[in-house]
Amino acid sequence: MTESSSRVLQKSGIFSSRVIEDIQTKAESGIYRIRGYGTLRERRWATFDDLTFLPCSLTRIPLEGYREKCETKTVLGARFAEQPIELDIPIMITGMSWGALSYNAKVALAKGASEIGSSNTTGDGGMLAAERANSRTLVYEVLPSRYGIDVHHMRLSDGIELTIGQGAKPGTGGLLLDSKVSGEIARQRELPAGVDQRSPARHPDMLGPDDMIIKIEELREATDWRVPIFVKLGASRVYDDVKLAAKAGADVVVVDGMEGGTGASPAILQEHTGVPTLAAVCEARAALEDMGLYGEVQLIIAGGIRDGVDAAKAMALGADAIYIGTAALIALNCNRPLYVEDYHKLGTEPHFCHHCHTGRCPVGVTTQDPELMKRLPIDEGAERVTNLLRAMTLEIQMLARACGKSDVHHLEPEDMAALTPEASAICQVPLAGTRRVWGS
User: Fold this and answer.
1) Sorting pLDDT into bands at 50, 70 and 90, what band is 298?
2) How far from chain centre, in Å, is Cα 174?
3) Backbone angles phi, psi at 92, to 5 degrees
4) Is 353 helix (H, G, I), strand (E, B) or coil?
5) What is the distance between the alpha carbons of residues 343 and 335, in angstroms, rounded to a whole number?
6) Residues 221-258: pLDDT tens digits?
7) Residue 200 burial (CB count, 10 A)
8) CA gap 192, 359 in Å, rounded
9) What's this model's pTM, rounded to 2 decimal places?
10) Which conformational region is residue 209 in: left (phi greater than 0), alpha (psi within -120 to 50 degrees), or beta?
């Protein structure tokens, strides 16, 4: 036996190939890594996959799908607003900026959501006029940057979302790299073209929850108390943050889990900050229950929601509605195997692309390049978004009917069992095969 044939190759459990490549890249560039999308790590925490529904058998009566209704109407913001938001379904499109997304993507999302009676959210950088024109219900996002903020546009909205943070990068501001800062985007944001735009990490006129009370009052005055005020939080200290937002006067609290996506962010924030969405919804509900406000203050959950199953489980745990972002972009053909040669130019493949930050999206979703944008026809994209929202709603209804519920909002924790001790402890539902809540 030769020396070479007797070698044993051992891979380090600490310094894997990925870690080695990351260290060497940073050693060459001297900067941290930035990318889009969301967490890329393989699952290592409790997720919605760790829960299973317990449909009716002898203990309850299921509903017939073709003969018995299962309502999906969703009302948000009845606490103080004169005109609460009324949606036909409980799934909404989250805030994604015109700048991070192309014109075609923003308009397609607006049209697709409107067709099925849902809502769309503006994102950083202000309101795109065509987005308002094509949105049945539009939520206007107010972020720390104040880029593109216009009180006249604000007054045209159906809701205001005061954003404190987002799940992909809580505690930091937004980021739009120079390749996406076209002349049109720069004019909208009143900033120089072709220069990286970094948003502040906090609102300039808020240093704590007491200041947020004043800010919410200002937003109410600006909109004549007509529309609901949402407060959006990146999931971190969820229990306390939700209480503070509710006390400050929010009609709706949005909690965005760490699986949430982004157009651009330091990679370490996507992988090593925040609280998973499953844990976030449980903490948020507990906070509202402790204040006696559960049901009066609505709860929207976001962060890595993939389908109607995830949405139904989040609702059973306490969410009134669900935001989707990345899933909606995938519906617009993100990561679809089209124009494969352009994926190769980015050094990636379809299904593996997380290069949203480059502005070179092969399918025209996250770009400001006019030629690339043409690859996303607006009406075709809108139809795909409508189809996704319809399919997700049907999935939620199917699970609700199987559990004997005539309204998707009647789903509750006791409709589920946990498949792992971690999920049982987090969600306070029994471990499957036992009557025991783990850790209680």
Assistant:
1) very high
2) 15
3) -125, 160
4) coil
5) 9
6) 999 999 999 999 999 999 999 999 999 999 999 999 99
7) 13
8) 17
9) 0.95
10) alpha
